[in-house]
Amino acid sequence: MIIMAKTSNAQKAMQPVSPRSEPMQSRSIKRTQQILEVTSELLESVGLNDLNTALIAQEVGISVGSLYHYFPNKQAILYAMGQSWLDSIEEVLKEIQDWPLEQMPLAEFIDQVIDTNLQTYRKQKAVLPLVQAMFSVPELRALDERHDEMVIAQMSKVFKRIGLKKHIRERERIARHFLEVTHSSYLVVVNQNPQRAARTLADLKLMLNCLLKHHLGGLGE
Prior knowledge:
Organism: Marinomonas aquimarina
Radius of gyration: 20 Å
Protein name: Nucleoid occlusion factor SlmA
Region (Disordered): 1-28
Helix content: over 70%
InterPro entries: Homeodomain-like_sf, HTH-type_TetR-like_transc_reg, HTH_TetR, TetR_C_15
Order of helices and strands: HHHHHHHHHH
DNA-binding region: 52-71
Largest sheet: none
Distance between the termini: 58 Å
């Protein structure tokens, strides 16, 4: 009973993350995009704790009341940012499924997977604090879970096509390992200078080559 009460109170404290309304007119769409871009820049410069709607509105050049016409709170803006980023990751995963995976040498497959996925991390402003927010802010936790589930499910299918003939549960386990290693490495690489980033990526590719080659039974050359 006590546990249920605590859960109920936590749910009541959750902020709504849906936008006030779906922007339809060109002006509203541009304003919404401006709010998201400004929030990305502020998230990187001031951090999550000091980010608030008053600061966002000031940088956008509108009143807080006008900002609330688009988003009810800070969490809703961050949720929209995270959702947009996940949509770009989903597009990449779909693109990978269209590759001739069965014919690709393992090294080429790893190169293309890493390079293609890394682009989504480089394009997203303030990707590290955004990912941290998705993990730590209760209203954004569903995005973090969606990200993991989406990558694991799709990469499990990809691994089967490149020759990893294991039970789906085992492929999902390997896919989760793949996710944890690549995700954390991408977040490091985007903040490194080009020389260090190149070395980190080379190490990442070497680790993935060893991991997948082992589960492919030594195949993949």
